[in-house]
Amino acid sequence: MESCDILVVGEGIAGCTAALAANAQGASLLVIEKAPQNVPHANTAFSGGSFRRISQAYPAEKFYQDMIGLSGGKADPDLTKIMVEESRNARDWLTTLGVPWTSKSRDPGAADQVEGQGKSLAEILRRAVAARNIKILHETEAYSLILASEEIRGAWIKTTGGNSERVKSFVDRSRRQSSQFDL
Ligand SMILES: Cc1cc2nc3c(=O)[nH]c(=O)nc-3n(C[C@H](O)[C@H](O)[C@H](O)COP(=O)(O)OP(=O)(O)OC[C@H]3O[C@@H](n4cnc5c(N)ncnc54)[C@H](O)[C@@H]3O)c2cc1C
Fold this sequence. Notes:
There is one protein chain. By secondary structure, the chain is an alpha/beta fold. It folds into two domains: 1-38 and 117-183, FAD/NAD(P)-binding domain (3-Layer(bba) Sandwich), CATH 3.50.50; 50-115, no CATH class. The chain is built from six helices and ten strands, in the order ββαβαβαααβαβββββ. It has helices at 13-24, 43-46, 60-70, 77-85, 87-96, 117-131; strands at 3-4, 6-9, 29-33, 50-52, 111-113, 135-138, 140-148, 151-159, 164-168, 181-182. The strands form four sheets. The protein has a three-stranded parallel sheet, covered by helices on one side. Strands 7-8-9 form a three-stranded antiparallel sheet, with no helix packed on it. It is globular, with a radius of gyration of 18 Å. The chain binds flavin-adenine dinucleotide (FAD). Flavin-adenine dinucleotide binds at residues 9-15, 32-35, 41-44, 46-50, 141-142. The site of flavin-adenine dinucleotide has 22 residues, from helix 1, strand 3, helix 2 and strand 7.
């Protein structure tokens, strides 16, 4: 029997950073990843590991317009603004996790690149999650979300062995308190 506040699906950069942020806020959580642990997986591990961020040469307005333009105008304006404004802090936060950069300066140009590219980035993020004793279940897939009143309230998950379980209730944001789920 397991219980936690937040279920994170996927062990790429989105899942790992979400898990680290939720852990820093004191939430109990579980990460599930459909791939086996010891094989390269996720786009993050195959990426170039380049991160755009604002600098004197690449002002916030230009970064914002590039993102909106690349998405054909579909990027969420508020989230894009946060992403742009926090881009330097994101680099600094990744540095605290031990991410090495090919350039020590965070000012020139429009992007930083991780030494060792995505392979190194993915390994460092996973190590950071493991170091905080956040539980990860590999070979475990979320295959259906449970909706209630247009909110995600849970998920069906299955393991490689074919066992299927219902994960009950994510954080109930409407009541601003956690509802637990059991595995
Ligand atoms: C060749 C290449 C180069 C790139 N270079 C760059 C770059 O330089 N800079 C940049 O910003 N972006 C780059 N990208 C894009 C970047 O890699 C992705 O945007 C980013 O890694 C996505 O992160 P993620 O965590 O959302 O997804 P992923 O890293 O793909 O992680 C998702 C994880 O979720 C798991 N998963 C999926 N569905 C389920 C499920 N139902 N249940 C359980 N687990 C599940 C997957 O197995 C995977 O491990 C590149 C992409 C590629 C392919």
